[in-house]
Specification:
Helices cover 49% and strands 21% of the residues. It is α+β, with helices and mostly antiparallel strands.
């Protein structure tokens, strides 16, 4: 890898892990290999040789345990980064296939439930503050610059939309 970095902005909802994985794979095929991502979903890539690398995105609301890491590394995955509970893994494609990871229906459903819980808790927290203590919320927001107020509103909307999308995913699973 050349060490030169490229930054891209790309927005994904909580439940778009498959779309993230596909996009990251397409970036690797162009020679852009994930290094990190920040809260504004600015993705930093290292320029390198184009490769058929697949990515796996997992959410776990607990810290990564040594057992979890060892299990995935033994299966052929490399840990790339962690961001607020999100774990990003990559592996080279062998004969057109990636090492198995989170493939069972039970694993996918458990992951969706963890994400739904995160969205619902965030939404309930925001609704509680807005309905029980509106004067506190108004006081706090009025002290912030307009951009931060918009960011707060976007976070609230993000939590509500994510909760609805994840609930639909659990009720009507994708094939």
């Amino acid at each position: 890898m050349s060490g030169e970095t490229v930054k891209k902005f790309k927005w994904f909802w909580f439940d778009q892990d498959v779309e993230q994985e596909q996009w990251l794979r397409a970036m690797a095929q162009q020679g852009l290999h994930l290094r990190k991502m920040n809260a504004l979903q600015q993705w930093t890539f290292v320029k390198g040789t184009p490769a058929d690398i697949t990515y796996a995105v997992d959410y776990n609301n607990k810290r990564m345990t040594p057992e979890y890491r060892r299990e995935l590394e033994n299966a052929g995955w490399e840990h790339v980064m962690e961001y607020v509970g999100w774990q990003y893994w990559r592996a080279g494609m062998a004969k057109g296939r990636a090492p198995d990871i989170f493939t069972g229906a039970g694993n996918k459903k458990a992951k969706s439930k963890r994400l739904l819980l995160l969205s619902v808790v965030g939404t309930i927290t925001l609704l509680y503050i807005a309905t029980r203590r509106p004067e506190y919320l108004i006081q706090q927001l009025s002290a912030l610059p307009g951009a931060l107020v918009l960011l707060f509103a976007a976070a609230a909307l993000f939590n509500v939309v994510s909760a609805v999308r994840l609930g639909a995913r659990l009720l009507m699973p994708r094939s």
